[in-house]
Amino acid sequence: MLKDIIVAYDNCCAAGIKTALVTVVHVVGSSYRGPGARMLIDARGNLTDAISGGCLEGDALRKALNAISQNKNRLVTYDTNNEDDAAFGVQLGCAGIIQVLFEPIDVVDGNNPMELLRKIISERKEVVLMTFFNAENKNAIQLGTRILVKGKEQKTKDNKQEAKGTEQKEKDNEQYFPFDSSLLHDYAIDVLLKKKSFFKTLELESIHVIVFFEFIPPPIALNIVGAGNDAIPLVQMAEILGWDVQIIDGRSTHAKAERFASTCAINVVGFQNLHHLNLHIDDQTAFVLMTHNYNYDLAMLRLLLTKKVIYIGVLGPKKKLDLILEALKSEGIELTSAQRKSIYSPVGLDIGAETPEDIALSIVSEIKAVFSKNKSGFLKNKNKPIHERAISNEISIFSPSCD
């Protein structure tokens, strides 16, 4: 997670330890993780996060330490189609070409890749991060992670999402940057509109330089309405996934930080005063109603129906939701088809969940499936690639040689 990487980086900076950011910038064929996977490696040999299932990390450590020593960006290609895995000292189980960028971090540079990542998590905005690499010549200058373009903060107004497109260009303070930033910026805005990452090949003095325009949405914001014991594992699992979590409950005896031992936000408010809640809702926001209190769930659902919410999970049997909907109907509130589609009740995937931990796993799995726009099911029954990554490959890789 970006948050973990930034914490590790800050700790290294405080201790005066050099670091390198390691990023998967392109994949052809199969790989455990796709473009945009990152990890931080420090000069002591510590790794934060991962770029594969563990098969690349050992070799990546050696190359990251070398990049730190030379203070130079480096592009490394791992060809997992090569039967002689020993050619680059790793044993891989995938079948593809993986290109990995190593960037030693200059802490003096206020616009270094880590500072760009810090800006990404500082606010809930969709962003495009641009990473430049030369696939033809691994010894050429690898410009690396250079420009961040932010979309307009996602808000709702009159139940309609405001148009995005208000962008912010981060000034590049490197001495050598040979591309027209306005053209790059136009490509980035297109990525923001389509919400899909994109590769573009640019020519510079007969050299092909590839730009990875990476679309990065804000993390899922999970609002758990209910602070009972069954909410505890749900909070824990959501935070492992890097989601932003908020607890909402009317009971101060339950909704308190020491019960959850986490960084989640806690909001104590009775169901009669839910209209006073300052809810930030965007298209990465989910709600799970699990108060075990009919009146509280009714009041919360009544409030949420005035907003544009993609996912509202309601814990309990269908009969409970039917009673709530009948009560709303008696108030003159008829749900539209879109509103009905946004309600998931009983909440969670059908995995045979029984315990609070099982149920939490079922809920986070369903939320992930909904926001990924994926149908849940057994992977063994899937005829398409496991990872149908939302990246438009405008380029073809130039038959690079492995390191």
N→C terminal distance: 28 Å
Shape: elongated
- Beta-strand segment tally: 19
Gyration radius over CA = 23 Å
Q: Tell me the strand order in the biggest sheet.
A: 10-7-6-12-11-19
Report the helical percentage: 25-40%
Largest sheet composition = 6 strands, mixed
Beta-sheet strand percentage?
Answer: 15-25%
What sequence of helices (H) and strands (E) makes up the elements?
A: HEEEHEEHEEEEEHEEEHEHEEHEHHEHE
Annotation field: number of helices: 10
| Assembly of the depicted chains | single chain
* Structural class designation: alpha/beta
* Poorly predicted runs of 5 or more residues: 85-89, 154-175, 395-402
Mean pLDDT rating: 86
Structure write-up:
This protein is of the alpha/beta class and about 400 residues long. The chain is built from ten helices and 19 strands. The strands form four sheets. A six-stranded mixed β-sheet has the order 10-7-6-12-11-19, sandwiched between helices. The radius of gyration is 23 Å and the shape is elongated.
Supply the key terms.
six-stranded mixed sheet; alpha/beta; disordered C terminus; 28% helix; six-stranded parallel sheet; elongated; 19 strands; 10 helices; 403 residues
